[in-house]
TrEMBL record:
Sequence ranges assigned to domain CHK kinase-like in this UniProt record: 123-320
Lineage of producing organism: Eukaryota, Metazoa, Ecdysozoa, Arthropoda, Hexapoda
PANTHER family reported for this sequence: PROTEIN KINASE-LIKE DOMAIN-CONTAINING (PTHR11012)
InterPro entries with a match to the protein in the record: CHK_kinase-like, EcKL, Kinase-like_dom_sf
Organism encoding this protein: Psylliodes chrysocephalus
Name recorded for this polypeptide: CHK kinase-like domain-containing protein
Domain of life: Eukaryota
Amino acid sequence: MSVELSEVEYNLISKIARENGFNNFEVITNKGALKGDNFSGILTVVTVKNDKNTLELILKSALQSEVFRKAAPLREAYLREIYLYENIFNAFKKYQESHNVPDIFDNHAKMYGSSVGELNECLAMENLKTTGYQLWNKQNPMNTEHITTILKGYAKFHGTAIAMKHKDPELYETLTKEISSDIWGDQDFEAKKIKIEMYIKMGMEAAIKIVENEPALVEFLKIAEKKIYELFLMKFQDPEYKVTLIHGDCWCNNFMFKYKSEDNTTPTSLRIIDWQLAHVNSPAYDYCYFFLAHSTKEVLEDYKSYLKLYHDALSQHLKSFDCDPDEVFPYSRFENHINRYMVLGLFMCFSILKIMLCDSGEAPDFGELKEGEDMMESFQFKFQNYDVYKQRIRELIVFVKEQDFISK
């Protein structure tokens, strides 16, 4: 289905076309995502072509809904992502090359151009699907090979920032000072506090309903609620947890994989996409959110092996910069952060697993948010796979309780 571009979008695509050697060219557009695949914008597949060459792009454009923009810092999210592509990733590449790092972090897409105009925020990215990258089926937990690939990718990303912070703190501070807090960071504290309280209460009430006939699990969730609130309002600001730049949006639709064979079992290449929620925090944030949302019960039971796998990859990357992992970010400190953040990962799953398990037509559409409606209430929707959702949420609650992460 053809999509009409705005004047700003068309001018951006035309500029990119000329910069890439296209003079006389045709622009072909098609819808780029199903409902529920992307919540903050519109994805458009764009093909620029002439008689000799073709350039395949994905145009990611911010929703213009005034109601949604009042409910969420949408403009800030787009500016944040553009900043990472224009500044952070370029600086990381140069920094890694200057230290002759053998296996650099470059697991992101290429951005060809962007617009930062009010109501016209957009990014034009390479179309990874046309080069063989694929999304994981969001309704299935990931296998060991995919989990391993992502944890190693995160380790390189986190490790590059940690090494820069340790060896060149002025450069690190210059790069990250504008994106140190999350995209909600500049909001009035009291207003932010009220929203967080409501968000947590809503999520916990839904989770308690799942285990309402199991008093021990209900009591556990009530204790967990206090811990989650503390993390959101206090721990995120504690210098102890301001360790590195993190991705912050760790669900499966933000990872794309390339494979050597057609069985799609073992990835040979990874791309991490959608960097709108990036900020400075603990690597445990990315780890716990991703690990809990995508692991089978068997993987959860073997969680300590995956902690070691991640930290070994992180240590190897740090050593490439001549950093001593035991000095910069030892396993004991990482494990301590994991013990604090696992309950946060559990909470994130209450919402994201609904999105992962619902069908396209069942997902909320924030572009249709009406005045007076609360964005978080949109996540209280009904979907066919609710029984699967309940089972997976219960498994996660039991896991976090049995491992006693609350009291650690």
